[in-house]
Amino acid sequence: MAEDDLGDKLGTDPKLDNVSQKRIGDQLRAMYDDLVQQPVPDRFKDLLAELEGKGRETKK
């Protein structure tokens, strides 16, 4: 009978309260804010430009 109770609890969608969601969101923003502010490396820009060029070639 205890296994049935556990199965019922595990079968429901876990939910966080609004305060917990906000705290997690604030912490994630604080952690990743510095990363977002950094410029995109030149090699990534070059790769994106190359990929965009290949995309245009295949569409023609």
Overall pLDDT: 83
Listing every helix as H and every strand as E from the N terminus to the C terminus, the arrangement reads HHH
* Number of helical regions: 3
Strand content: under 5%
Give the overall form.
elongated
| Amino- and carboxy-terminal Cα gap | 65 Å
Biggest sheet: strands, sense, closure?
Answer: none
Structural class: mainly alpha
Counting DSSP E segments of at least 2 residues, the number of strands comes to: 0
Poorly predicted residue ranges:
none
- Taking all Cα atoms into account, the compactness measure Rg is 23 Å
Helix % is: over 70%
InterPro entries: NepR
Pfam families: NepR (PF18557)
Protein name: Anti-sigma factor NepR domain-containing protein
